[in-house]
């Protein structure tokens, strides 16, 4: 039977899930993902919809929304993996299957294994889960803010008209 500590080690060594390690380099990887997503995927799609020269605010917001959406999905996937292993580490009883889905069993951890797994869960997996949860909340808040700005932002020419002429922007029919 594979012990939960082995699952933790395999998760920590996996390329994507190792991004959640509690080190400054892990968020540099996430920032790199944001930069690559913005330049390679989101900006070209947003440029096809909104001209960067005519409506730069909508262009930047649309590209930012696409970037935040993809990054949020990646962080969610990492969080789900760490949450699964963290829950198994902290649990006293773990379901397992010997050969297939039809012969599932429940394994009760011996006291020494339970103590070791709970130490790993409390001091290794739980801080990572908390950091990932906070990252998800932050990216979600940024996403909601960007969508709100995108939905209610007036076109740039209206803003320029009001600044140049010192007058309110012209009303457009709905």
From TrEMBL:
Domain of life assignment: Eukaryota
A GO CC term assigned to this protein in UniProt: plastid
Compartment annotation: Plastid
Main location: plastid
InterPro entries per UniProt: CGLD27-like
The entry's keywords: Membrane, Plastid, Transmembrane, Transmembrane helix
Residue intervals passing through the bilayer: 27-47, 59-80
Keyword Membrane: yes
Keyword tRNA-binding part of the UniProt annotation: no
The protein's name: DUF1230 family protein
